[in-house]
Design goal:
Layout: H1 3-13, H2 19-28, E1 31-33, E2 43-45, H3 48-56, E3 60-61, H4 65-71, H5 79-85, H6 93-106, H7 109-114, H8 116-133, E4 140-141, H9 142-147, H10 149-159, H11 163-180, H12 187-213, H13 219-228, H14 236-266, H15 270-273, H16 278-288, E5 294-299, E6 303-305, E7 308-310, E8 315-319, H17 320-323, H18 358-375, E9 380-381, E10 386-387, E11 396-398, E12 400-402, H19 406-418
Parallel strand pairs: 2-8
Antiparallel strand pairs: 1-2, 3-5, 4-12, 5-8, 6-7, 9-12, 10-11
Helix pairs in contact: 1-2, 5-12, 5-14, 6-13, 8-10, 8-18, 10-11, 10-14, 11-12, 12-13, 12-14, 14-16, 14-18, 16-18
């Protein structure tokens, strides 16, 4: 296959299993130009070394408001674009540093550590629910009943969102993620994302005002307090944009980390007796079947990347999912090996835009996954799972499991009836 044929295949239907296509790319190099006219990128970067370099090089920028002006006239008419452009995820230079500085001040490693009792408590509650649903030996959707709910409730607890609002919030974020996926840019998807962004903005502005008047023990209260102290100049709309991004970063990726991890862990029964190895297993899940596959960067000036020339303003697709399977960096990259030495997946990015929610995602997985396996010794995969139709965030839409042996349940029920 030619490079353009591979890129077209990834854009069209690469979500089911992109790894053979990534292997084809690795045989062609680390960076390749994209010449297919229907694709918006001038190049794709997929070698681990090249991906790490471009993510750390500040001359390769994220798409910000300044670049939106000439490229997307009328972008300010779209609430989702305005909201995202108000966040650090879509800001460069001093503006990015100003907003990230605020969040780094209050979203600290200590705060993540303080969340551990909440993670354990919420995990136990959700596993009780899974046990009840699966008590008759029938299938339970692990994604709907656990993998979606745990990170959503944890980040909700972090931000101070009421539990009853979490389901609504997840729906709104999913609409925005649909638009963010690089293969889905239809007008209907954009309209739905606009509506979601408007609803989230109204919700957060009301909550910010409440926390400013009556602070609580949550992140939004601490953020508004830090802004009020005059140390950080961040507007309320910038705060809204960044709260949306933080919810997304601490929620969407973690959902698919839990989903992608489970089949891999169930195939390795030794992990049940050695839960202390879970951190190494989580890192290998992040490498082997990473949730985040694609970042986008913009060339900030005329330059070249490993011999591929790029003009100022051209878009580059940064394939982190491919970089994590680079045979130049990882021996036998298509083998799941939690014991591999120097395992440093690039799943959460690198450089100044390194994922703000990475530490929380790792903590949740390392704490909760051992409890899942411990609670359900008979846990097994059920009927055929369903993958999402996104590539930027790749995971399962549905992952049926059983937690109790149906034959034993039936036999027990028969015996009870006979008695």
């Amino acid at each position: 296959m030619t490079a353009d044929e591979i890129f077209r295949a990834l854009a069209a239907d690469g979500t089911d299993d992109p790894y053979p296509l990534y292997a084809e790319l690795h045989r062609l190099g680390e960076v390749l130009p994209v010449t297919a006219p229907e694709l918006p990128y001038a190049a794709a970067v997929f070698g681990y070394r090249a991906v790490d370099r471009i993510l750390r090089d500040t001359s390769f920028e994220v798409h910000d408001a300044l670049r939106m002006e000439p490229m997307t006239p009328g972008w300010r008419d779209h609430a989702v674009l305005v909201t995202l452009m108000n966040s650090m995820m879509f800001s460069n230079g001093d503006r990015h540093g100003r907003m990230r500085g605020l969040f780094r001040k209050v979203f600290t490693p200590r705060r993540v550590q303080e969340m551990e009792p909440d993670v354990l408590r919420i995990t136990a509650e959700l596993l009780d629910g899974v046990a009840e649903l699966g008590a008759d030996g029938g299938e339970v959707d692990y994604m709907a009943e656990f993998a979606y709910l745990l990170p959503a409730r944890v980040v909700g607890r972090l931000l101070g969102l009421p539990d009853e609002d979490i389901s609504w919030f997840r729906t709104q974020v999913d609409l925005i993620n649909d638009w963010l996926d690089f293969r889905r840019k239809g007008s209907d998807v954009l309209a739905a994302a606009d509506q979601a962004a408007t609803r989230i903005t109204d919700y957060y502005l009301e909550l910010i005002a409440k926390r400013r008047a009556d602070p609580q023990r949550d992140l939004i209260s601490d953020l508004t307090r830090a802004i009020g102290d005059g140390e950080h100049e961040v507007t309320d709309l910038e705060l809204v944009g960044n709260l949306l991004v933080l919810f997304n970063a601490s929620f969407s990726t973690t959902i698919h980390l839990f989903g992608n991890a489970l089949p891999l862990l169930l195939a390795r029964p030794e992990i049940r007796s050695t839960p202390e190895l879970m951190p190494a297993y989580v890192e290998e899940v992040l490498r082997y079947d990473t949730p985040a596959h694609v970042f986008i960067r913009v060339a900030g000036r005329d330059t070249e990347l490993l011999g591929v020339p790029l003009k100022e303003g051209e878009l580059v697709a940064v394939l982190t999912g491919a970089a994590n399977r680079d045979p130049r960096r990882f021996a036998e990259p298509d083998r799941f090996d939690p014991a591999r030495a120097d395992n440093q997946p690039i799943s959460f990015g690198a450089g100044v835009h390194y994922c703000l929610g990475a530490a929380l995602a790792r903590a949740e997985a390392q704490l909760a996954l051992p409890l899942v396996l411990e609670r359900f010794p008979q846990l097994a995969l059920g009927s055929e799972p369903v993958r999402t139709d996104q590539l930027i965030l790749r995971g399962y839409k549905s992952l049926p499991i059983t937690v109790t042996d149906r034959a034993l349940v039936t036999a027990g029920g028969t015996a009870d009836a006979a008695g």
